[in-house]
Amino acid sequence: MAKNREASQLGSFITVDDSTGKVGIANSVGINTAVPQGSYSLYVQGTTNVTGVINSDTDIQIGGVSVSPSGGVSVDDVTALAIALG
User: Fold this and answer.
1) Extended strands (E) in the chain
2) DSSP string spanning 22-45?
3) Is 79 strand, coil or helix?
4) Would the pTM of this model clear 0.70, i.e. be above it?
5) 57 with 69: CB under 8 angstroms?
6) Which candidate, 23, 41, 43, 75, has a CA 20 to 30 Å from the CA of 31?
7) Are 23 and 16 in contact (CB under 8 A)?
C-alpha cells in the first residue's frame, strides 16, 4: 500500500527557490530504493548509465580504486582500469 502524503508534510524536507526554480531536498535521495545506504546524499541502487560528463572536485572510486581528476587521467586510462577490474 502506498504511503500517501499531504504536500504540507513535505514542506520541511523540500525547498524551492522561486527566482531560479531550483529544488533542494533536506535528506538523502534514493533511486531504485526507498532506503538510501550510508551517508551519501545520492544513493543509486542498480546499474547506472551516464551520458555526458561526470564532474568531481575530489577523487572518483571505480571498483575501490581511486582516480584523481587532478592527476591528468585520460578516458583511455579509465577504460583500461574498468576492463582490468572486470
Assistant:
1) 14-16, 23-25, 29-31, 42-44, 60-62, 65-67
2) -EEESS-EEES-SS--TT-SEEE-
3) helix
4) no
5) yes
6) 75
7) yes
